[in-house]
Every structure is written in structure tokens, then in C-alpha cells.
Amino acid sequence: MRENILIGIAATMFIVGCASTPSTTDKFSRIDTNSDSYITWEEYKVYYPNAKKSSFIRVDESQDEKLDIGEWRIGAGYSF
After folding, report:
1. Which has fewest Cβ within 10 Å: 21, 56, 65, 74?
2. Which CATH number fits domain 23-80: 1.10.390.10, 1.10.238.10, 3.40.50.150, 3.40.50.720?
3. What is the mean pLDDT of each successive set of 10 residues along the chain, which is 80 residues long?
4. Rounded-to-integer distance, Cα 58 and Cα 65, Å
């Protein structure tokens, strides 16, 4: 019985934690301040002031100096 209660509490905490964590798309939208569906280096460095441009460029697969949502999702786990 006690085990079931602990499992229920852990599951609830997990669900609440997931619900309160911004999605990759939500974060993309917040950084894309001009809503053109791209994140430029200038937009990115406002949100992440300590980021390195070399890392940003590495994630920019199309080499157009901006990230689209696909590049963002691929690079979302990457530490800029």
C-alpha cells in the first residue's frame, strides 16, 4: 500500500514537472522576437548572453546565420 502511494506521488510530481517545463517550440517562439520563424544570433544572445557564436554556427546546418525550428530542435540539447 505504501509503495503504491509513493509511486502515485512520484508520477504526479513527474507530470506536474513536465507540464511546467516550456516546450522546445515555446522557447523557440520566445527567442524569435520578430516572429519571422527564425532565430538569429542577435536574438539568441539576448536570451543567452553567455552563449558562444561558434556553437550557434555549428547548429546552423543550412549556414544561413539563423536557426529554423528544425535546426533548433536538433540543437536544443546542445550546450551553446
Report:
1. 21
2. 1.10.238.10
3. 53 49 84 96 94 91 94 73
4. 10
